[in-house]
Each structure stands twice: as structure tokens, then as C-alpha cells.
Amino acid sequence: LSKEKIFRETCKLLDNRTMYNRMAKSVNPYGDGKASKRIVNALLYYFKK
User: pLDDT of 32-49, one tens digit each?
Assistant: First the structure.
């Protein structure tokens, strides 16, 4: 990415509320970031049996 492209795309987001909202509310394809905590809790539960 060039500095110019980053600048242009940033300006688009600042000037276009719809585009900004769509970007801000996009779904993370990698989940919510809490997988490791869930795995640890599952392992603790399993091994405490």
C-alpha cells in the first residue's frame, strides 16, 4: 500500500458515513478473540472431573 492510497481511502471513510459504518461494523472472520480462554476453561473443566 502506498501512502497516497491509504490517504485516499481514509478520506473516503471520513466523507462517507455509510461506508464508514459498514467498515466499522464488519464481521471479524477470525472470531471474537476469546478462543484461547474458552479452550483453557474447557480443559480445566475436563481435567477436574
Answer: 899 999 999 999 999 997
Model pTM score: 0.50
Q: What is the rounded distance in angstroms from the CA atom of residue 17 to the CA atom of residue 31?
A: 25
Every domain of the chain and the residues it spans: 3-47
Buried b / exposed e along 13-40 (16+ C-beta atoms within 10 A): eeeeeeeeeeeeeeeeeeeeeeeeeeee
Question: Band of the pLDDT at 18, cuts 50, 70, 90?
Answer: very high
Looking only at Cα atoms, what is the longest distance across the chain?
58
